[in-house]
Amino acid sequence: MTEAKEAILLVGGKGTRLRPLTVHTPKPMVPAAGVPFLTHQLARARAAGVEHIVLATSYLAEVFEPYFGDGSSLGLSIEYVTEDEPLGTGGAIRNVASRLASGPDEPVIVFNGDILTGLDIRALVGAHATSGADVSLHLTRVEDPRAFGLVPTDATGRVTAFLEKPQTPEEIVTDQINAGAYIFRRSVIDTIPAGRPVSVERETFPGLLAGGAHLQGMVDSTYWLDLGTPQAFVRGSADLVLGRAPSPAVPGRCGDRLVLPTASVAADAKLTGGTVIGEGALIGEGARISGSTVLDGAVVEPGAVITDSLVGAGARIGARSVLTGAVIGDGARVGADNELRDGIRVWCGAVLPDASVRFSSDQ
């Protein structure tokens, strides 16, 4: 089978919807299952035969290279290209083209940096080679496709249209959506205009289709999750720990919990649902934590109950406080006997006094 040896990873987004997680950390570097989320994508690409990856960076670009270096620790060769001005998905792909070594007809994989997926990458590469397509797209099926771009295909899997975020029932002609992973024939990348913002979804793909190019869709409905919101990110991390989402980079066996080596967890604390406890974190007596991420150096005091939430690095959750679907920024302090629910976000460094909050927010 033809293998794709090169890949582009689009990691330039600001992660605005993920704040306060992304105030100090770009979205791909936020920890999921104990390591930066990007580590899972790099490890999966390597397992599929990729050898050379170019990271298209923009927001907080300076944090990637000190962490991953030249990629040799992952068995990869990694290069970094930073956009001075945001170029969109297509512009970012074009901007790194000079770093690719593939020949004109060879396949180059492109991954979006905020998708957690069980995609069979080798199968997508194989389908691309078999069909002779100019571009192949990973498609997945969703129950409510209104928030996504629809990609209908014919009986052979050939793409027939691109429909951006349909609203009426008549517009919803398929449940297949663009799942954010592509195989480009190398020469096609060079046709993307250089030096200006380009959306691959709104401009490049429809333009190729209109010009008679062959775009092939492969439906792979294994695990797929867009990590665009804090709640989705927390769930994705838990699913990695539980083994629902596959990754060779999870640091430990899959199971109900992942406790990193220097964390301290009281003997009677209960950790379930794919909970992750970061390095140096401290979990007090009788705490109950389910489906949540507690980042490095955070403190959860005795009797706190945390469900489907994320506690930022160095944050402190007071005794008996209850968090459900909450996001607590780095270094924030939630006093004792508070109750935070339903998507509430506490900003980095904020301080909530004891027993001061008994409301929920969806802001």
From TrEMBL:
Q: What name has this protein been given in UniProt?
A: NDP-sugar synthase
Mannose-1-phosphate guanyltransferase C-terminal domain location is 255-358
**Residue intervals of the Nucleotidyl transferase domain:** 7-239
In the record, the note on similarity to other proteins reads: Belongs to the transferase hexapeptide repeat family.
Q: State the organism named in the record.
A: Streptomyces silvae
Pfam family, any one: NTP_transferase
